[in-house]
Specification:
Rossmann fold; globular
Length: about 525
C-alpha cells in the first residue's frame, strides 16, 4: 500500500508542514532569487494561492531555522543568519474601522517590542514603528525583516457595501499609507534586510504606495510567473501517489487522461503577459486530490460579494467577460477613486490573461471551476441571492436538450421573476441578454455571447459538450420571435457552424421589458 502524505489544506505554517512530513511543493528556488537579488518586493496574487505560506516560509528562513529546509533547493545556498522578523498579517489584524486598525497595529508593535526585549515608548503609529526597527537593529546588530501579508484586506473588505463602508476603506488606506511609509524613510533603509508585501490588489502610486515606492513589483515579472500556483511539472513531481489514486478511483485510462481533466477544471492562470505559462489553482488541486472529485472548491472559501454588487450596476457587461480586451496599462489606474471592474476581476483571480496582442491583453475565465462558479454567483446576485434560479438553470439545460421550448419559456420566466423590481428600472435588451446568458451558461451548455460573424454579431451560440449541434439565439425586446429568427437566417449566423460540420438550430426569443417576461420562442432547425 502506497503511503499517502497529507495535503496541507488547513494550514499555511511552513514549520508544521515540514516537521510533519506533509506535501510541500518546493518554491525555494524563487525565494532564493528574491533574497539574494533585492531587498523590497511586492507580489499580488489571488486569494488561496499560497501568499501566506510564502510569508511564513520567509519568516522561518530569516529566523535561521535551517533544519526545516533540509532537502529543499535553498538549503545549501543560504547562510541562515538569524534576523529580527516583524510580520503584519492583515488576516489577523482587526480593521472593521479606522480605530480598530490603529489599535491592532499598535498592539503588534508593543508585542514585538516585548518579544525582543526592547523599550518602545508610547507615541503615534509611524513614530513607534520607526523606533522599533531602529531599536531591534541596535540590540541584535542585524538588519530587520518586515513581512506584510494581505496588506489590502483592510480596504477590500469594505468595498461594494455602501458609502459608509467606502469611507472606512479610505480611512484605512490613509493609515496604511502613513504607517508603511516608514519603510522608505532615510532613517531606516540601512536597517532593513528584507521587505516582502503580498496582497490581492495592486493599488497605484497615488494611493498606499505613494510613500512606499521603493518596492519592486514582481506581480507580472516573467521569472515569477510560476512562483505561486502549481505548474504541471510540479503536479507530477510532488503529487504522484495522489494523482494515481484519483486516476484509479475515477477510472481514467492513464495519468494523462486524469491530468487532462484536472487541467480543464483548475489550470489556466497566467500571471505574466511576457510568458505564456499557465499554473493550477493550488487549493483547488489539493481538494480535488484529497476528495477525489471534480468540484468548485475555490469558491467555497469565500464569495466575492463586493464584485457582484459592482457588476449588478452594469450587468450588460457580464457576457463580455468570456473574452474581454483591455489595454496593457489597465492595471495602472487601480485606486479607490478609480476602480475598474476588469482590473479587480483580474487581480482577484476571476479573470486571467488569455492572450496578448501587441499592446492589448484579452482577459478570460481561467478554467471551468471559475467560469461556472462565478456565473452561478452572479445569477444569484441578480436574483437577490435566491438559490432557486441556480436550480432552474439546470432544468433549463434539460429542457433544451429535449427540445421542449414551452418549458424553456416557462423556466426563463421563472428566473426573471426572481429579479428585484429595482433592477428593472434600467432594464434593456442587454440586461435580459445577461440574464439569459448566465442561465444558459449554467445549464451545462457552453454559451458564447455576441459571436462575431462576417455579417454582424449574433446574440449567443450555445453548445453542449460532445454534441454535434449548436443553438443560435437571437433575443429581441418588443419584436416578435419570428422576426428574431428571420435575422438569424438573413445574416447567415449559422454559416460558420455549418462549415464546421455542426447541425444548427436557430432560436428567436421575444421578451417584453415592461411585463418582465418572455413572450414567445420560435425555432427552426437547419442542417
Amino acid at each position: 500500500m502506497v503511503l499517502m502524505r497529507r495535503l496541507p489544506l488547513d494550514t499555511s505554517s511552513f514549520k508544521q508542514i515540514r516537521e510533519r512530513g506533509w506535501v510541500y511543493v518546493d518554491k525555494t528556488p524563487w525565494i532564493h532569487r528574491l533574497v539574494t537579488e533585492g531587498i523590497c518586493y511586492f507580489l499580488s496574487r489571488p486569494r488561496r494561492f499560497g501568499k501566506s505560506l510564502t510569508v511564513n516560509t520567509l519568516k522561518e528562513l530569516f529566523r535561521g531555522n535551517r533544519k526545516l529546509f533540509e532537502g529543499l533547493y535553498i538549503h545549501d545556498k543560504w547562510d541562515f543568519t538569524e534576523h529580527p522578523v516583524l510580520i503584519f498579517d492583515f488576516n489577523e489584524i482587526s480593521h472593521e474601522n479606522a480605530e480598530n486598525l490603529k489599535r491592532g497595529l499598535q498592539y503588534r508593535l508593543t508585542t514585538y517590542a516585548e518579544d525582543y526585549g526592547v523599550d518602545l515608548p508610547e507615541g503615534d503609529l509611524r513614530e513607534r514603528f520607526d523606533r522599533l526597527i531602529k531599536a531591534l537593529y541596535r540590540k541584535t546588530g542585524r538588519p530587520v525583516v518586515v513581512l506584510v501579508d494581505e496588506y489590502d484586506k483592510p480596504i477590500l473588505d469594505h468595498l461594494g457595501l455602501g458609502e459608509e463602508r467606502m469611507h472606512i476603506a479610505r480611512q484605512n488606506r490613509e493609515i496604511l499609507k502613513n504607517f508603511f511609509g516608514v519603510l522608505k524613510g532615510a532613517g531606516v533603509v540601512d536597517e532593513l534586510a528584507f521587505v516582502f508585501v503580498t496582497g490581492v490588489s495592486s493599488f497605484t502610486k497615488v494611493s498606499i504606495f505613494s510613500e512606499w515606492n521603493n518596492l519592486v513589483d514582481i506581480t507580472l515579472h516573467p521569472d515569477f510567473a510560476d512562483f505561486l500556483g502549481y505548474t504541471e511539472e510540479e503536479m507530477v513531481r510532488f503529487f504522484p501517489e495522489h494523482l494515481d489514486r484519483l486516476c484509479e478511483e475515477k477510472g481514467f485510462k492513464g495519468r494523462e487522461e486524469c491530468l487532462s481533466e484536472i487541467r480543464f477544471w483548475y489550470n489556466g492562470y497566467r500571471f505574466s503577459p511576457r510568458r505564456d505559462l499557465r499554473v493550477y489553482n493550488p487549493i483547488s488541486v489539493m481538494y480535488c486530490l484529497s476528495w477525489r472529485s471534480f468540484e468548485n472548491f475555490w469558491f467555497r472559501t469565500g464569495t466575492p460579494t463586493f464584485l457582484v454588487n459592482w457588476l449588478k450596476e452594469k450587468p450588460w457587461r457580464i457576457p463580455e467577460l468570456e473574452r474581454f480586451p483591455v489595454g496593457a496599462e489597465f492595471l495602472e489606474a487601480f485606486d479607490l477613486e478609480n476602480l475598474r471592474v476588469e482590473a479587480v476581476l483580474y487581480q482577484a483571480g476571476y479573470l486571467t490573461i488569455g492572450e496578448v496582442r501587441d499592446e492589448e491583453w484579452v482577459l478570460t475565465y481561467p478554467n471551468r471551476e471559475v467560469r461556472r462558479s462565478f456565473q452561478g454567483i452572479l445569477l444569484q446576485g441578480l436574483c437577490d441571492w435566491e438559490t432557486r434560479p441556480r436550480v432552474l438553470a439546470d432544468e433549463l439545460g434539460r429542457a433544451i436538450r429535449r427540445l421542449d421550448w414551452d418549458a424553456v419559456r416557462e423556466i426563463l420566466n421563472d428566473i426573471l421573476s426572481y429579479i428585484p423590481h429595482s433592477l428593472y428600472a434600467r432594464a434593456d435588451e442587454r440586461f435580459f441578454h445577461t440574464v439569459f446568458y448566465l442561465a444558459l451558461a449554467l445549464s451545462g451548455y457552453r454559451a458564447e455571447s455576441e459571436v462575431l460573424t462576417h455579417r454582424g454579431r449574433l446574440d449567443m451560440a450555445v453548445r453542449y459538450e460532445g454534441e454535434g449541434r449548436v443553438f443560435v439565439f437571437e433575443f429581441k425586446a418588443g419584436v416578435s420571435a419570428e422576426e428574431a429568427l428571420k435575422q438569424i437566417e438573413a445574416r447567415g449566423y449559422a454559416d460558420r457552424f455549418r462549415a464546421r460540420g455542426l447541425s444548427v438550430i436557430g432560436v428567436g426569443v421575444s421578451f417584453d421589458p415592461a411585463e418582465r417576461r418572455v413572450l414567445d420562442i420560435s425555432v427552426r432547425a437547419s442542417s
